[in-house]
Amino acid sequence: MAAPAPPRPLARTVHSAPRRPSRRRGRTRLELALLLGPALVLFAGFVLVPIGIAVYYSLYSWNGFGPLTDFVGFQNYADAFGGAVFRGAIAHNVVIAVLSIVVQLPLSIGIALLLDRKLKGRTFLRMVVFAPYVLSEAITAVIWLLMLQPNGFVDELLRGVGLGGLVHQWLADPGIVLYTLFVVMTWKYLGFGIILLLAGLQGVPPELREAAALDGATAWQTTRHVVLPLLGPTIRIWVFLSVIGSLQLFDLVWIMTLGGPANASTTMASYLVDHGFKRYEFGFGSAVAVVLFAVCFVFALLYQRFALRRDTAGALTRVVG
Amino acid sequence: MRPSRRFPLAALVAAAALVLSACGGGGDEGPAAASGPVTLTWWHNGTAEPVRSLWQQVADDYHKAHPDVSFTVQPIQNEEFPTKVPLALQSNTPPDLYQQWGGGDEASQVESGRVADLTSSVQSWIGSVGPTAQGWQVGGKQYGVPYVQHVVGFWYRKDLFAQAGITAPPTTMADFNAAIGKLKAAGIAPIALGGKDRWPDAFYYDYFAVRACSAQVLKDEITAVKLQNPCWVKAGQDLQGFLATQPFQTGFNGTPAQQGAGSSAGLVANGKAAMELQGDWDPSTMSSLTDDKDLDSKLGWFPFPSVPGGTGDPAVLLGGGDGFSCTTRAAAACAGFLQYLTSTPVQQKIAEAGSGLPVNADAVASLKSESLKAVAEQTRKASYVQMYFDRAFPTAVGQALNDAVANLFAGQGNPEAVVQAVNQAATGNK
Fold first, then answer.
1. CB count, 10 Å around CB of A79?
2. Which of A1, A10, B98, B160 pairs with A110 at a CA distance of 20 to 30 A?
3. DSSP letter at A318?
4. Quick check: B410 and A262 CB within 8 A?
5. Using an 8 Å Cβ cutoff, are B408 and B240 in contact?
6. pLDDT of A21 strictly over 60
7. What is the DSSP string of B64-122?
8. ipTM of the prediction
9. Closest chain B residue to A153 measured between Cα atoms?
10. How much is the pTM?
11. Closest Cα in chain A, distance from residue B42 (Å)
């Protein structure tokens, strides 16, 4: 069905507003400098400068001690991409990101739709679902590390309910360790996605559902054609956060597996810390950090440009002056 | 209106100036005079009792005897040192005295130019520390002093050995394999291994190499960071052969070494496995992971068995130690304190506290358990104590070795790949 043409965005009309007198503009600039200045100084000092320093370090072979003398150009980058372990790490990050979208997203939407209904104990269920998100990653990792030990809680539980055949070496088998970590991640972050989606569902006007019901739409049709499209902005933000989070995955891996066994669960971030801090390869570690940053940055830019464009159109403000 | 608008700007400028000046001026404490009162900032890893109190006591006692020297003692988590020390050595205010494990890490830290060369100041007394002190030398110069030494061997439960019908600790590989067979037959996991942490895996490769290679080859090729002798490959083959007998508990590749009852140390402590190849610190680690108050009496120790076909002396042991390095600001006062740490009365206290084997032989009698005394005795008889390879090599090389060995344990890679990993990492290749 054809939607009515949206009203022209407000920003357009601002363009044609008469320019303000220059005295006021001068004062506006002073105000801007005053209000933005400190934030910009902090941002430059704690965000931009460190990134610049990392790029600079990445061009040297440097163990963290003494002056930077051993300039190697892009050799560190070549070494990183030339090594099977780092390429494997990138692949693991991609697997986690894809699994998140394919598994966590439908699961989150399903549970969110369920919890959006009027059912008994809804508040309690919402709390239970959200609880894991409150725990820090470190605590989550330690809890699951203990539960996933051979003959630990998970194995005993499986045997107890007659699923003993499913018992695996959850963290010791290179073939499944990455998926084990993904399950733990899902356990931890599902609640966050659900809360986000529930908030999005609040924004679905009940009138639309009523109208759909009057038109004779089934529950599925209403969900598919009314609710999900209106959840679009929330889903797009969730995907953004989820992919960035997957690319930066570190804490769970470091505490539960140290990237092992046999590098089967190494991620870009765990590889970075392993080489930078455990091996005193600060130049090489910086190169890996720059790669990780570039991947996240490029993804963020492209995603904002293409996927989030509609969502952010009204939020972006024209530069003053 | 106007003044009230200006005010925030003025305040802001003032605040910014304050912050900037504070940042700029913070680092410069100025060099302390060679003599006169000095306060040593001491970073040690004794965050747990009884070591924490012991070190505080030692500092207080030393201050009483030397009023010119006072201390700011900072216990820091063991795992934090690898990140804190490099950063501190880059800053203007490194600690004056900090935890040092010698070997490749120390060699890297020396490059900062802030670690004090203690060679001349320790000359008169370093002999009392024994040959262990060599591990804290870089290029023939002493950059740190160990206060305890460590030795790796098999800790075993006498009760489980008896239950499996093993009458004496094995001394040869054949005995050892037979013992493993008996334990399996009795339904007991023979050996616990914390493979998640990788360094326990490396103990096995290290020991097979120590048995396959002569002490001279070990010294020469590890110092040169170039493994050429075929014995290094033989070590890997011996290890693979041993792995094929499946001597470890289920899921050893994902098991942590020292944390929790499910760790390898916890498994032995709770009677779920019979042995663990670990350092002399293992009994104290185990006692914190079990309710068993009689654990010490159930534990025994035997060295890594002899392996057929190698040129290594079966009396060579693998080990290391804990020590301290001084930075240059107050090196003289710091060296004086290190001498105190290695003196017999302090060494006796260290031995009583159970934090390791005293480097000073006169303090061995103060060790708290019979098994530890036996380890110290064995250590004294050792023809040579090889430092763990991951410490003896430059850091990046040591980690590459641990990785390659961990791959072997996970059923990937091969003996040649271990040697190759070391030689490649030595040339800076990833």
1. 20
2. A1
3. P
4. yes
5. yes
6. no
7. HH-TTEEEEEEE--GGGHHHHHHHHHHSS---SEEEE--HHHHHHHHTTS-B---HHHH
8. 0.81
9. B262
10. 0.85
11. 21
